[in-house]
Structure to design on (138 residues):
């Protein structure tokens, strides 16, 4: 059966997995409109140009019940890992009745400590030596 967008998004949490290349873990909680929904997943929006705000959009979808179901709001959740492009600053998860955004701090590339020490030595070499005060006579 074809997947359909769920009814509501309740919470979205993102965390960066520091691998090479880095990945993004997305945890989503929401509600479906009846019992029997299965196989939740995220459908990624495809862009002609990357979004100006750095937010990647996804639809939260699942398989609705095949036959008779009870019309009651039921919780549904999903945890997935996706690639993390360098331009991405967060995700927006869409449902039928709402959407939610979760942003994160972008990864800072590791600093080459040897180059950092060398630059510090150059800076120190350019500074004039501090003059010592003459010793006091007693």
């Amino acid at each position: 059966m074809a997947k359909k967008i769920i009814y509501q998004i309740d919470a979205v949490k993102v965390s960066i997995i520091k691998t090479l290349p880095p990945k993004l873990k997305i945890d989503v909680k929401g509600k479906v409109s009846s019992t029997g929904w299965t196989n939740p997943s995220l459908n990624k929006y495809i862009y002609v140009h990357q979004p100006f705000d750095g937010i990647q959009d996804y639809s939260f979808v699942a398989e609705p019940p095949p036959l008779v179901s009870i019309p009651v709001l039921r919780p549904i959740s999903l945890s997935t890992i996706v690639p993390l492009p360098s331009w991405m600053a967060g995700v927006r998860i869409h449902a039928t009745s709402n959407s939610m955004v979760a942003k994160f701090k972008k990864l800072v590339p590791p600093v080459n400590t040897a180059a950092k020490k060398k630059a510090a030595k150059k800076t120190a070499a350019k500074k004039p030596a501090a003059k010592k005060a003459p010793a006091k006579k007693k």
In short: The helical segments are 113-126.
